[in-house]
Design brief:
single chain; 116 residues; alpha+beta; 3-stranded antiparallel sheet; two-stranded antiparallel ribbon; 32% helix
Length: 116
């Protein structure tokens, strides 16, 4: 009877240590996934809109930010400060080298021309 008990305890301890190793592995994988899904970057010309389960929570400024992982929070990046620049050149019939004319067009997204 004593030998059966020892064999049973040895098997139980082996299973217990295997179970513990599996649980620790799962916890490590979940921690890595949480870290990878918790940080995000908002570029300089944009703002981020944070949604929790699809509902608006806040608007964040550019930079490295933190959110709740595993898809609880999602971030929509919206370009709001974009400067468009176009350069034009003009050539004349007497000279074959173009005459540079620099024009800078500035507009803010969402504004209408002539209105403040």
């Amino acid at each position: 009877m004593s030998q059966i008990k020892k064999v049973f305890e040895a098997n139980f301890n082996d299973q217990k240590s295997q179970f513990r190793a599996i649980i620790m592995g799962l916890i490590a994988v979940l921690a890595v996934i949480a870290l990878l899904t918790a940080f995000y970057t908002v570029q300089a010309e944009s703002q981020g809109v944070v949604l929790r389960f699809g509902k608006y929570i806040k608007t964040v400024e550019p930079g490295l930010k933190f959110k709740l992982p595993f898809g609880i929070d999602t971030v929509q990046i919206v370009p709001v400060r974009r400067q468009l620049k176009q350069e034009f050149g003009v050539s004349t019939p007497r000279c074959h080298q173009p005459l540079p004319i620099h024009v800078i067009l500035r507009a803010k997204q969402g504004e209408k021309h002539g209105h403040r």
